[in-house]
Amino acid sequence: MTTEQPVQLESLGEGIVLLTLSRPKALNALDMGLLTALDQAITEISAQEDTRAILMTGAGDKAFVAGADIRAMSQMSAVEAEAFARKGQQVFRRLEDLPIPVIALVNGFALGGGCELALSCDFILAAENAVFGQPEVCLGVTAGFGGSQRLPRQIGPGMAMELLLTGRNVKAEEAKQIGLANHIYPQDQLRDEGIKLAQKIVACGPNAVRLTKQLVMRGMSLDLENACVLESQGFGLCFSTDEQTEGMQAFLEKRPAKFN
């Protein structure tokens, strides 16, 4: 793993990859360079068929991503700002659309674009010092990387509206209470707990994991009836795989399943 790159990828074994966002002097704030590097990292991960889960964190112990780079944004025209927002949305959507699970390890501030990036992941594990928020209105702008859309889907429109319209930050404990964070851990245990969660996922059938994520993501944009039809199709598809045969045979034989 090189330390000069703004996005670093490290294999942790068992198909688990650690992705670190690294602009520590700027608290890992998002600029066009970091977004481009993240986009390239997603392309690299997509080409690795043996990758089964991703852990994402920020360099240092103060911030996951402190937000978008305000100094850079302050000089943007309206056209440039829209292009910047579209770039962030495109990259975050690519991350969200990865067929493998992505676990955010929020090790400090996750404000603005940082909160939006965490919301693009499938799980959010927060350190005790984590702080979440969408403070854009305090700067005279709206959320730009999907926060006004993903946050209501994550925690409900009422609480999301409060956070979006006041810019109020929430600490880790409240984030868990409102459904923004899955779990909270001491800072020095966050990575290990993320690895444990990833290992639990990796121990399951890889095709079933991928298909389940797709069913959840696609189903949320459908009405319940059509979403359930989609689920039944996915369920049936599983029965054409060796994975289903091995999983059920292992259960009947009272032994751990051995998935490829």
UniProtKB/TrEMBL annotation:
An MF annotation (GO) of this entry: hydro-lyase activity
PROSITE patterns cross-referenced by the UniProt entry: ENOYL_COA_HYDRATASE
Domain of life: Bacteria
Coiled coil: none
GO biological process terms, semicolon-separated: fatty acid beta-oxidation
Keyword Lyase: yes
InterPro entries, A to Z: ClpP/crotonase-like_dom_sf (IPR029045), Enoyl-CoA_hyd/isom_CS (IPR018376), Enoyl-CoA_hydra/iso (IPR001753), Enoyl-CoA_hydra_C (IPR014748)
Pfam families per record: ECH_1
Keyword vocabulary terms for this entry: Isomerase, Lyase
Family: Belongs to the enoyl-CoA hydratase/isomerase family.
Name recorded for this polypeptide: Enoyl-CoA hydratase/isomerase family protein
